[in-house]
Every structure is written in C-alpha cells, then in structure tokens.
Specification:
Blueprint lengths: L15 E13 L1 E9 L5 E2 L2 E3 L6 H13 L2 E2 L3 E7 L7 E9 L1 E2 L13 E7 L8 E2 L1 H6 L16 E2 L7
Parallel strand pairs: 1-7, 3-10, 6-11
Antiparallel strand pairs: 1-2, 1-4, 2-3, 2-9, 5-8, 6-7
Amino acid sequence: MSDGRRSALPTAELTTAVCAHAVIARLLGEEFLLTLRHREQRWHMLPGGAIHSGETVCGGLRARLRELLGAEVGDLAFHTAIEDEPRPEGNHVNLVFDTSLVGADDVEVVSRNDQWEAVWIRWDDIRATDLYPPLVRRRLPVGTLRDEAWWATELRSASEDGEG
C-alpha cells in the first residue's frame, strides 16, 4: 500500500545534451555530403555540435558551423531527432537539419578546428562510411538529393531502430 511518499531509492542524475547537425550536400557531376572527420580516430560526423545554454537550436547550429567551417548557411529545414543510447555521462539528442552553404566555395571547405577535417564524401559511399551517429548513415538515401524530407517524420531513438 502506497502512502504517497517518494521512494528512498537513490536516483542517478542524468544530463541530456542537445546537439544540432547539418546535412550539407552539393552536386558537382556527382552528389556529395560534407562531413567532419576526426583527425585521429578517423570517424565522421555531420557538421554541427552542442547547443549551449542561452542559444536557440538554429542559432546554435549556425554558430557551430561558423566556428567549424567559417561558413554561413541558408535556411534550416528540420528532418529528424536521433537519441543516442544512454551513457553513464548522459544522453545526447541529435537534431538534424538540411541546409546549404552561402557565400562560400563549397568545393574547398576547410575545417577551422585542429581536431576535425572537412571531407566531402560521395553520396553513394555514405553507407560504408563510419558516420556518427550510426542511425544517420542508415537513414540517408543513397544516390539522391530529394526535395522532400528523407527521414521518417516521427521521433525515434537508436534502440527503437535496431541500433545499439
């Protein structure tokens, strides 16, 4: 029988980081996707990063792209949210947007961060690329830049989609 009091069991404090990433594609004979490759560990991620306290999601994503690439982007079209597997240090929720570079030579984008290298990968090679978060790699279409949203509109976690 419950008396309405809270359980005396200890609870772990779990933090959630909100990150925003951009899908920046270009068509130059073939379709390419801009990624950032970690210089030491060699895995890729979509450009972007953590949203800081006091920033809007879109404002934070624009700031991270300026910091990482020195580039401005156009309109941001929301596509999906991907929740990483829970970790002892906290969760990450990744918001993914489609956009394009503005006023920059998108063939020669250079990372402004010593830890990351800007790399254009062929759209057809996305599935074979070590791209973080893994669910992104599975959800990107192969060989097409479509105008409609290319991810499911419902919000899903990595564990619900078979990642893990």
